[in-house]
Amino acid sequence: MNIYRKSFMDGLTIGLGYLPVAVAFGITAKPLLSAFETFLMSFMVFGGASQFLALQMLSASSSAAAIIIAVFVLNSRHFVMSFKINYDLKREPLLKKLLISSYVTDESFAVSASVEDERKDFANYFIIFITAYIFWVAFSVVGYMAGEIMSEEWVAASGIALYALFIALLVPAIRTHHKYLIVAVLGMVLHFVFTAMHFIPSGIAIILAMVLAALFGLILEKRGDKI
């Protein structure tokens, strides 16, 4: 099989995996955003978990600054992934590296890390990443349009997709490293405590919980505790 076709099939596989989550995002976004805003968020952010988080914070009337900071913190892991991609493309111009890095997701990174050496180049990475990206953006809009013909009860129920997505991201990590369960529970407890403190805005509460739980996780990693 042609190497570019293999890369397209890899991207198609990722895109098909995105399909139900992207549709759920579009449906969930309908009460909060316009069709163009939904498209624009998927087009510019391209991060499933962070986009759902942004919707949750919008529904809680969080400030724009709080949403931006929370999304940045959640997506900060992509910096590490981009460093690895840039190493693979060390002979490519900076502009190409920046372009590829803007399309990095957990799934596309995992696929790119497992491809054969002959496909570790800009063209093949771009094919994989852009194919998955097109699926995410397109089906976000499809989901929004589906929300137009669905009852309000169905649209409201689609909000469960947020929790399903975070659980789907969390469970594999917990199965590999049990310490992540402690970090996740700590984050939930801290968020509950900070939210109960009515003088802390909801947007700031979630950022504080995320950062403090992440710092605790970093301490566990540094100490090398085996939990």
Automatic annotation (TrEMBL):
Transmembrane region(s): 12-33, 53-74, 122-142, 154-173, 180-197, 203-220
The cross-references to Pfam families, in alphabetical order and at most eight, read: AzlC (PF03591)
Principal localization reads: membrane
Record GO biological process: L-valine transmembrane transport
Keyword check for Magnesium: no
Query: Where is the protein found, in the record's own terms?
Result: Cell membrane
Superkingdom:
Bacteria
- How is the protein disposed in the membrane? Multi-pass membrane protein
> Cellular component GO terms, alphabetically?
plasma membrane
Q: What is this protein called?
A: 4-azaleucine resistance transporter AzlC
Q: Which InterPro entries match?
A: Brnchd-chn_aa_trnsp_permease (IPR011606)
The answer to keyword Transport applying to this record is: yes
Family under the similarity heading: Belongs to the AzlC family.
Record key words, sorted: Cell membrane, Membrane, Transmembrane, Transmembrane helix, Transport
